[in-house]
Design a protein that fits this description.
By secondary structure, chain A is mostly beta strands. Chain A is built from no helices and 9 strands. A 5-stranded mixed β-sheet of chain A has the order 1-9-8-3-4, with no helix packed on it. Chain B is mainly beta. The N and C termini of chain B lie far apart (37 Å). The chains are: A mainly beta, B mainly beta.
């Protein structure tokens, strides 16, 4: 299972764009990159998933460079309700067990 | 996408007692997993619940402490046995459907917040 490294915490003001970068140097060819959001006392919630280049949905964008050794989750114009822990995970068809790193605690400030 | 219903959402238990947590999925999943999240920590995989056979436990977790059942493809239970205050955590189930890695967006239960006095 590819190990991931993220910043422990980040602070941002409301309305700003937030970019959280995750390193996964030993990502395998078949691995996908998935980001989850978790609020206190709740289960993780899927945000976005990608394999390469750029993926965008109604919530966020995911940027993956050509070497796929890192990925960046971009949250546009964050609000106070985006305060949560964000987890980056790497997994493939043959590794069905998700291994969670420590995540990034995002605090949005008014 | 499928939905997992997990209950209870929270409980406060006495030392030495046991609590059984249930997860019901609204569609068949190939695999179900149980996680523990201790206060302020990330998620740790307890075991993989196998349908019709004994669960596969991760290092540090044993069947006597965390017996798991999975009688069919849509239901699983985790029991936390002979509880102590150190068992106070959030317990989460997760389902994985067919289709390989692109199904990792599926789906966690809402969690059970357990406090042991």
């Amino acid at each position: 299972l590819a190990k991931t490294t993220q910043p422990i915490s980040m602070d941002s003001y409301e309305g700003q764009e937030v970019n959280i970068t995750c390193s996964h140097n030993n990502i395998a060819t078949n691995d996908y990159i998935t980001w989850y959001q978790q609020f206190p006392s709740q289960g993780p919630r899927f945000i976005i998933q990608g394999y390469k280049t750029k993926v965008t949905n109604e919530v966020a964008s995911l940027f993956i460079p050509a070497d796929r050794k890192s990925s960046t989750l971009s949250l546009p114009r964050v609000s106070l309700s985006d305060t949560a822990v964000y987890y980056c995970l790497v997994s493939g068809a043959g590794s069905y067990q998700l291994t969670f790193g420590k995540g990034t605690k995002l605090s949005v400030i008014p | 996408s499928a939905v997992i219903s997990q209950k209870p959402s929270r409980d406060i238990c006495q030392r030495g007692t046991s609590l059984t947590i249930q997860c019901q999925v609204d569609s068949q999943v190939t695999m179900m997993f149980w996680y523990r999240q201790q206060p302020g920590q990330s998620l740790t995989l307890i075991a993989t619940a196998n349908q019709g056979s004994e669960a596969t436990y991760e290092s540090g977790f044993v069947i006597d402490k965390f017996p798991i059942s999975r009688p069919n493809l849509t239901f699983s239970t985790l029991t936390v046995s002979n509880m102590s205050p150190e068992d106070s955590s959030i317990y989460l189930c997760r389902g994985r459907g067919r289709g390989g890695a692109t199904n990792e967006k599926l789906f966690f239960g809402s969690g059970t917040q357990l406090s042991v006095l």
